[in-house]
Recover the amino acids of this structure.
């Protein structure tokens, strides 16, 4: 029978093999000047019980990998349902996740640990990344006592920055995918949303290279300057 071990400093109860896997997780890699086509990136999407980053919970995770300048269809993290530790509101119906699926889902600690093993030291991309980053960080802290340090890049910011003169009137994921003629297989499903976000990211990376931005380091610098200009215009 497996024995459960308490982490130091009053943390979540984890099994010994989970603690060992947690210790083996690599530190996130810093952004560098490698060409975008040589950079492994993980594009993720979370489905959650609501939009309150302090109280709502992660219900599922979907992720795909971009490497060698393309989406790796053989390297995906399938939508993993998480068994919530609290009651979930009726808002889960928007995701099409049945209560029975949640009840039989993977325990949060195991699902999140498997996801971080999938991520490795790679940077993360998401659409409206700040929300996913906060939700994932809290889930990792609560379930694993793990501090998320991986850099996040927001495709919702990259899109208007790289397409200032050719953009849709609205700026949601549906608006940008429609703008570029992409087909969305299923919305509000973590794996499908991660895939369409990755397709959008590849289009944006192609535009970035034409603008002389061929690394995450260069994109990060440009993005910081773009944010400052956006904030200045709001004053």
């Amino acid at each position: 029978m497996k024995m459960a071990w308490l982490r130091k400093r009053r943390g979540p109860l984890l099994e010994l093999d989970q603690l060992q896997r947690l210790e083996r997780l690599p530190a996130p890699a810093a952004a560098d000047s490698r060409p975008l086509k040589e950079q492994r990136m993980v594009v993720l999407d979370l489905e959650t019980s609501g939009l309150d980053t302090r109280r709502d919970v992660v219900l599922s995770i979907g992720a795909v990998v971009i490497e060698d300048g393309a989406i790796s269809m053989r390297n995906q993290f399938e939508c993993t349902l998480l068994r919530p530790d609290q009651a979930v509101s009726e808002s889960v119906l928007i995701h099409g996740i049945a209560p029975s699926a949640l009840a039989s889902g993977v325990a949060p600690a195991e699902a999140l640990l498997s996801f971080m093993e999938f991520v490795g030291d790679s940077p993360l991309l998401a659409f409206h990344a700040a929300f996913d980053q906060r939700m994932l960080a809290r889930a990792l802290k609560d379930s694993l006592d793990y501090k998320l340090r991986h850099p996040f890049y927001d495709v919702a910011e990259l899109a208007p920055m790289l397409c200032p003169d050719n953009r849709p009137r609205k700026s949601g994921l549906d608006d940008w995918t429609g703008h570029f003629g992409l087909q969305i297989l299923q919305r509000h499903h973590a794996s499908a949303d991660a895939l369409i976000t990755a397709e959008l990211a590849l289009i944006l990376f192609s535009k970035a290279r034409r603008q002389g931005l061929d690394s995450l380091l260069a994109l990060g610098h440009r993005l910081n300057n773009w944010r400052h200009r956006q904030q200045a215009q709001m004053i």
Q: What stands out?
A: Residues 33-157+169-234 form a domain with the Nucleotidyltransferase; domain 5 fold (CATH 3.30.420.10). DSSP finds eight helices and seven strands in the chain. The first strand starts at residue 4 and ends at 6. The two ends are 62 Å apart (CA to CA).
